[in-house]
Design goal:
Jelly Rolls; 5-stranded antiparallel β-sheet; alpha+beta
């Protein structure tokens, strides 16, 4: 029989073996997390400052990785868990976060290379294969910082995007200079007055395109329907964001002859660019006309005044899902069935928190999105995993919280010195008079 001392040694060795086996390694655990959450930006030639394609890359940057993960700066996923469920979620689970912290604290062990997952093969250009149509910036552009801010926000006008009405199932963007292009927003208009404004902005600017800090400086909107403004958003791109494909039943209408406005945020921390950018837009069309048109509701408050030197100032807004509130009283039998497909919050640099909720007719509250550490440079359009029903006579409410650290009042506006409190809701309207109100195909 084992003595008590021998039994204790055996027990200790067993516990040690369990500990050693449980210790995370790069090959077995960390490489998989990095592949899923980091490599889409941290790869050669992309926007991240260093690559994370292998063990040596990760070992050298281990302390930087730990700091970014521990402070929740990276991956740059802003929505709070439990406030909307979204496709292509880049956030780290508590388990994955702890795995990375433990790995660094243990000295960043490599483990057995035989445990490595197969490498991810990234598309060199178009992630869904060759697009049905490619639209490029009209002219190359070399972004140069302005004196009043380091980054550059530039709008490029893409005239007559399609030669016939097209139903789009997906939009992809290939930046010409990945290390400079921080995000892209795409707007649509087919309104002659707005197109005239675009041409004026271009004529007044000596460089290609025109400056557009907060938005496109026009009122977007395109396509048929009484509520034309609902057709004004074409898409968005940020580094690491997967391409979202709409199902065959939903499409985004690009009317014949419509103009697209491509707003590009150039990140210029390292100074002026030395090579011109030529970002391209790829459109993927539905094979057949869909049942429903993807539309956009801009929920906003443009009447606020932020007092100087005051933190935590809240701005509220509300949108009633009741056509009667907009002078279109309809019998319930003619009212479409609404569902939310995506959500995109937007503020400028004084914003700190933003959230949106659905308040149903029985006062039940459904959270749509909440971000409690807003960063103007990390914003996106988030697509829900499943459509969120929007019962008629519900209300969509939203709030923005600002820290006005300046010495002057701040109001709604387009410039860097202004602010916005805005939430885009991507939605569909099925049945009823949706064809008349929104140009729905069925």
């Amino acid at each position: 029989m084992l003595s008590i001392r021998a039994f204790a040694v055996v027990l200790a060795l067993g516990c040690l073996g369990t500990f050693v086996q449980a210790q995370p390694t790069y090959s077995r655990e960390v490489s998989r997390i990095i592949q899923q959450k980091c490599q889409m930006c941290h790869r050669p030639g992309d926007i991240a400052p260093f690559a994370l394609m292998n063990y040596d890359d990760a070992r050298v940057q281990a302390r930087a990785i730990r700091g970014a993960v521990d402070s929740r700066i990276m991956p740059p996923w802003k929505p709070i868990p439990g406030h909307g469920e979204f496709q292509h979620d880049l956030s780290l689970s508590d388990e994955d976060r702890q795995t990375i912290l433990d790995w660094v604290d243990a000295g960043s062990p490599e483990g057995d290379p035989a445990d490595l997952p197969p490498p991810v093969v990234y598309a060199e250009e178009w992630r869904l294969g060759p697009p049905d149509q490619i639209v490029s910036m009209p002219l190359p552009y070399v972004p140069i910082p302005r004196e009043d801010r380091p980054d550059r926000y530039r709008c490029f006008v893409l005239p007559n995007v399609t030669d016939q009405d097209r139903w789009v199932r997906a939009v992809d963007i290939v930046p010409g200079q990945r290390q400079l292009v921080h995000h892209v927003l795409l707007y649509l208009t087919d309104d002659p007055d707005q197109i005239k404004l675009l041409k004026q902005f271009e004529d007044e600017d000596a460089e290609p395109g025109y400056d557009c800090w907060g938005g496109p400086r026009i009122t977007p909107g395109a396509g048929p329907g009484l509520l034309k403004a609902a057709g004004g958003l074409l898409g968005a791109w940020v580094p690491g964001m997967a391409v979202s494909e709409l199902p065959p039943s939903i499409g985004l209408l690009v009317p014949k002859g419509a103009y697209a406005i491509m707003q590009i945020h150039y990140h210029l921390d390292d100074g002026p660019a030395t090579v011109a950018d030529m970002t391209r837009l790829g459109l993927y069309f539905q094979k057949d006309p869909p049942k429903n048109r993807l539309l956009t509701l801009p929920l906003l408050n443009d009447q606020f005044v932020l007092k100087p030197g005051v933190e935590g100032q809240q701005v509220n807004m509300e949108f009633p899902l009741d056509l009667g509130a907009f002078g279109l009283p309809l019998p319930d039998a003619f009212v479409p069935k609404f569902s939310a497909i995506a959500v995109g919050p937007h503020m400028h640099q004084l914003g700190r928190k933003i959230r949106a909720d659905l308040v149903q007719p029985d006062s039940t509250q459904v959270p749509l999105i909440e971000i409690d550490d807003w960063d103007f440079h990390w914003q996106g359009l988030y697509q829900f995993k499943d459509p969120v029903p929007l019962p008629y006579r519900s209300r969509i409410t939203a709030s923005c919280v600002f820290d006005n650290t300046t010495d002057h009042e701040v109001r709604w506006g387009e410039s860097t010195n202004d602010e916005m409190c805005l939430v885009y809701i991507g939605f569909i309207a099925e049945g009823g008079l949706s064809w008349l109100l929104f140009g729905n195909p069925s």
